[in-house]
Design a protein that fits this description.
The chain is mainly β. It is built from 5 helices and 43 strands. The chain has a 22-stranded antiparallel beta barrel. A 5-stranded mixed sheet has the order 8-13-14-11-12. β5 (80-86) and β6 form a beta hairpin. The chain is globular and about 90 Å long. The termini are far apart.
């Protein structure tokens, strides 16, 4: 009996011991110490995500100053826990551990963390660090941080780029001191058509379906032909569809009367994938004296004339792709419809009527892209497109007493212009005998036709049919040299042979020097040659005596990238020089009189330096550029002095990973800019546009397992509206000032992702 009692007592003691042991283990905190594998030091502020494998419950913890992330024992987690560790500049780590244990994890540095893919001007997709050109990559992350709606809102914050705005003709860009006629705008490699005043209206390019923006400064005329002289901007749309079905919807509003909505549905089934999207952008107009939070009701006096015109845009798109055994095929169709309302000043003895205009723009873009990759070297890409553009002006006489309108019978005040583009571009990238060589052969066939009452004979066309070739040679691991040449036949001009030479020297894995010398070519457009835009508000004359532009570009760039202890440092320094013969300029002689002219010679040169420094969740950048321009004036023997214009940019962003939020600050200073105008005697003269600052603060936060995104902020905090412009402003902006922005703007964005 005694033995039996002793036996049971031993079992009870053993059971209690086991129970206390289990409770002790359960009571222990789960700790992960994160260490730099190379340096042997701990890493503070790394992200450690703990996920209960059984319940999928997650908790994100930041490592402390000792590199330790702690999951308290009080957290209601089961025994099996998955850990996911990330930190900028290091490879991601995944593992499974037991609750209550403590482990040490060594992270390896990874240069791959920085390598985001670019394709513009490249033989094949590569990172900006490996590209031979200087490429500015604007990611979707930055677009969202800016809370930008259209392309002009993003590029206006970039270094070495300037945006000009006309409230009817739209927004245009200059790069390296050269205007928008010399900038090629592409969407997935397809050139945009429909230039007004020589420029593509960047405010018509919506960013809702854009994955990233690639900007190459300097000529890419060998690859992309005419207009790719000052730079090339290629917008890459979203194509990757990981899940069988995804649905996104978003609202964006501003206190000045902006209300935008958009939605997107993506799908994937087997080897097929696609997406459909729709956007409506609405802006009810704005004047300098409008109230801050609401626009006043329109009345029949001079206040009906708005500096920033009311605008409504509708966009819709559809894409369908199929993954092949060795490539992909993708069809894309996009439609665009815009209405701008331009209300005139009351006229007549009693202000009972006014001249009003509607500006209606329609676009329909179709493209099909076939990409076949036999292996990593031999690749064939075929891109075909057919695009239509229509710009219509409808003029009315509005009865302000009865609020009715009738068409204005005056000849020439209403007009419709149409443009079509058919293009076929095909490239083959291969490798001849020898492991250090690659080559690319291509054809680029373009035919553009313009129709309109203001076009000579009501229809004119320009055909440009070209072949191009480039060879890339790597004699060793440090040197990469790429010569190229383009030969073309242009139906309007004897197009010149366009050569180029690019080189890169890799000093160290973290340092590189890039150099280039290239020719550029731009033929006058159909509108520059044959269009006469003359009415009560405009006098823009085509010039059939224009000569084609030719240019010589040289540049030298240095880049440095360093990853150390979770810190990322990027430095870029560059010099450029552009010499243009027979530069085509739309010059101004009065508020409304413009004409195209060949300036005998134009120079553009400058220096720029950029730095980015990221540590933990903090991202900072600082940039400076100093650009000089010089134009030899007509009928003069002496050249004016080079006019220089500085720019400064800075940004600061901090991610609160634990709270799934971030805050960003963007600042840009644009210095005084020289410009060329025509005086009352039709002589070209130099004038200036005043300096100004733009400052934005934005914040974003995610809710409900990242399905809901809230964005708020203030744009143009310094309340810049117009700036002085000696010699006149844009065709629609008033005589001695230029519009920059519609005052200080408060915005809110609400997005849903399913």
């Amino acid at each position: 009996m005694y033995s039996t009692a002793k036996y049971h007592l031993q079992r009870v003691i053993l059971l209690l011991g086991m129970t206390f042991s289990v409770l002790y283990i359960h009571a222990q905190d789960t700790k992960v110490t994160v260490i730099d594998k190379t340096m042997g030091t701990t890493i503070p502020y790394a992200h450690v995500q703990f996920t209960d494998i059984k319940t999928s419950k997650s908790e994100i913890v930041l490592t402390n100053n000792d590199g330790v992330a702690t999951l308290p024992a009080t957290e209601n987690f089961n025994q099996q826990i998955a850990i996911h560790i990330t930190y900028i500049g290091f490879k991601t780590f995944n593992d499974t551990i037991q609750k209550g244990t403590s482990i040490k994890v060594k992270l390896s540095e990874s240069i791959q963390h920085l390598e985001q893919v670019v394709v513009t001007g490249q033989f094949s997709a590569s990172s900006p660090e490996k590209a031979l050109h200087k490429i500015t990559l604007i990611t979707r992350e930055k677009i969202d941080a800016l809370n930008a709606v259209s392309l002009d809102q993003v590029l206006a914050r970039e270094l070495n780029m300037s945006i000009s705005k006309d409230n009817v003709l739209g927004s245009s860009i200059s790069i390296q001191g050269l205007s928008g006629e010399n900038v090629k705008i592409l969407i997935d490699g397809v050139p945009m058509i429909g230039r007004l005043n020589g420029n593509i209206d960047l405010s018509q390019i919506n960013l809702n379906d854009i994955e990233r923006i690639e900007v190459v400064e300097g000529p890419l005329s060998v690859s992309y032909g005419s207009n790719a002289l000052a730079g090339t901007i290629n917008l890459i749309t979203k194509k990757d569809q990981q899940k069988p079905l995804s649905v996104n919807a978003r609202y964006y509003g501003e206190n000045i009367g902006t209300h935008n909505v958009d939605g997107r549905i993506g799908f994937k089934k087997g080897t097929y994938f696609g997406a459909a999207n729709f956007t409506r952008n609405f802006f009810d107009g704005w004047n300098v004296d409008d109230p801050t939070w609401e626009n006043p009701a329109l009345i029949a006096d001079s206040s009906r004339v708005q500096l920033w015109k009311p605008r409504t845009q509708y966009l819709a798109g559809f894409k369908l792709g199929k993954k092949l055994k060795h490539g992909t095929v993708l069809y894309n169709i996009n439609g665009f419809d815009e209405k701008i309302t331009n209300r005139g000043t009351p006229r007549g003895p009693y202000g009972e009527s006014a001249f009003d205009d509607l500006y209606l723009t329609k676009r329909l873009d179709n493209s099909i892209n076939v990409n076949v990759s036999v292996d990593t070297i031999n690749q064939l890409n075929v891109l075909a497109a057919y695009n239509l553009y229509e710009r219509k002006r409808e003029a009315y006489i509005s009865d302000l007493t009865g609020v009715t309108s009738r068409p204005n019978p005056t000849d020439g005040v209403s007009d419709t212009t149409k443009t079509t583009l058919m293009m076929l571009r095909s490239t083959f990238t291969g490798k001849p005998v020898g492991k250090n060589w690659r080559y690319q052969l291509g054809v680029d066939l373009n035919n553009e036709i313009a129709f309109g009452e203001r076009i000579k004979d009501k229809e004119q066309s320009i055909g440009d049919y070209a072949g191009f070739a480039s060879v890339e040679w790597q004699p060793n691991l440090k040197w990469t040299i790429r010569p190229g040449i383009r030969m073309s036949y242009n139906t309007q001009y004897g197009a010149p042979v366009v050569p180029s030479l690019y080189g890169k020297y890799q000093l160290k894995p973290t340092m590189a020097i890039r150099g280039s010398i290239a020719r550029g070519f731009r033929a006058p457009s159909v509108k520059e040659l044959y269009m006469n835009f003359v009415d009560v508000n405009h006098n823009i004359l085509g010039n059939t005596d224009l000569k084609a532009e030719t240019a010589l570009h040289t540049s030298l760039n240095y880049s440095f990238v360093q990853l150390k202890k979770g810190r990322t440092l990027k430095i870029k320094v560059g010099l450029f020089y552009n010499q243009i013969q027979n530069k085509i300029t739309l010059a101004q002689s009065s508020t409304t009189l413009y004409s195209y002219a060949n300036i005998e010679e134009a120079l553009s040169l400058g220096f720029n330096a950029e730095g980015q420094y990221n540590i933990g969740h903090l991202k900072t950048s600082l940039g400076f550029s100093y650009t000089g321009t010089q134009n030899s004036l007509a009928n003069t023997e002496t050249k004016p002095e080079i006019g220089y214009s500085p720019q400064l940019t800075s940004s600061l962003s901090y991610d609160f990973k634990k709270y799934k939020s971030n805050i960003s600050v963007f600042w840009k200073f644009s210095g005084q800019v020289p410009q060329i105008i025509l005086d009352e005697n039709d002589n070209l003269q130099q004038s200036f546009i005043d300096a100004y600052n733009i400052l934005d603060v934005t914040a974003n936060k995610k809710f409900w397992k990242d399905r809901v995104i809230l964005g708020i902020g203030v744009k143009n905090i310094l309340d810049v509206t117009n700036i002085s412009s000696s010699g006149g402003g844009g065709a629609h902006s008033g005589g001695s000032s230029r519009p920059i922005a519609p005052g200080r703007v408060y915005f809110v964005k609400l997005g849903l992702q399913l």
